[in-house]
Design brief:
single chain; 10 helices; 295 residues; two-stranded antiparallel sheet; Rhopdopsin 7-helix transmembrane proteins; mainly alpha
């Protein structure tokens, strides 16, 4: 059994957390550069700027700021830094990133429910609670300077535990709603469930939920605060990448006409209106050719 109170173990865990932060930062820079052509469509006004687009851009670039602040926190060479202010900015951008990424999932569920009032109200209530907890946690967070490693360290673990659990709850609720509406559409329209799940980007939401299960469990076990922070960095990276890719997939499918029943709503979200799903059974080109030749 590893003794996490051992100073040597603590130093190694802290260094591993910093390495994970740098790795996620590098991977996220690549993600931004690889998909920056999509952002340029809005900059050039080729696409209309909606509420969903605002959530998308906030998510993408708040995480970038969060990573920059995190790297700065772990590489401070001044003698008396203001760790509290630095930590406030870091924590706010991290939690705000999580909230805006979850907003993309909420908008997706709202679209699949065909803007159902009760579903929307329920999700908005959870989402408002997420923001309230986020602001409360940022206000109570504490940070101290550790000269030996030139870093500002967060000393309040409860904020990570509550926020991670709340984000996980919201994402799981979105996943359940998406599964329900996709199964409902597959049943009523007679379409293939697996292709419909793929088209609606459900795999992204499942990935988020699986990663957050690990983050929530490790946060409440609380083996080491640096380990908890490192897992949250990975969880936030997964949430943002999956949520923004889901948004881009739906928008581009709408633009090219490749998505079944997916449109962008004028109210700033997505909308899905009784899509005409493909029938379950289709005759292949070879079958049609054989039938025509036999006549």
């Amino acid at each position: 059994m590893v003794n996490f109170n051992d100073p040597i173990v603590q130093q190694r865990v802290g260094q591993a957390a910093v390495d994970i932060l740098f790795a996620c930062f590098g991977a996220y820079l690549w993600e931004i550069l690889a998909s920056f052509d999509f952002d340029l469509m809005y900059i050039r006004r080729e696409k209309r700027f909606t509420l969903a687009a605002a959530a998308y851009f906030s998510t993408r670039y708040l995480l970038l700021i969060c990573y920059v602040m995190g790297i700065y926190m772990t590489n401070i060479w001044t003698s008396n830094p203001d760790c509290m202010t630095i930590n406030y900015v870091f924590m706010f951008t991290a939690y705000a990133t999580s909230a805006t990424a979850s907003a993309l999932l909420v908008l997706r569920v709202r679209a699949l429910s065909e803007r159902n009032v009760y579903v929307t109200a329920f999700l908005l209530a959870i989402y408002a609670g997420d923001w309230a907890l986020m602001l409360w946690q940022v206000a109570r967070t504490k940070s101290v300077f550790i000269p030996a490693v030139h870093s500002c360290a967060t000393v309040e673990i409860l904020a990570f535990q509550i926020n991670t659990t709340m984000a996980f709850t919201l994402d799981v609720v979105c996943l359940v709603f998406m599964m329900y509406f996709i199964l409902q559409a597959a049943h009523t329209k007679g379409s293939d469930m697996w292709s419909l799940m793929r088209d609606q980007g459900l795999v992204y939401v499942i990935t988020i939920a699986v990663v957050y299960i690990v983050c929530v469990v490790m946060a409440w076990i609380n083996l080491h605060i640096a380990l908890t922070q490192a897992l949250n960095v990975v969880g936030l990276f997964t949430l943002v990448v999956c949520a923004t890719r889901l948004h881009r997939r739906l928008i581009m499918y709408h633009s090219t006409g490749s998505s079944r029943g997916v449109t962008t709503g004028g109210a700033g979200g997505y909308s899905v209106s009784a899509p005409k799903f493909a029938p379950r059974r289709r005759s292949s080109r070879r079958q049609r050719l054989s039938a025509s030749m036999s006549r």
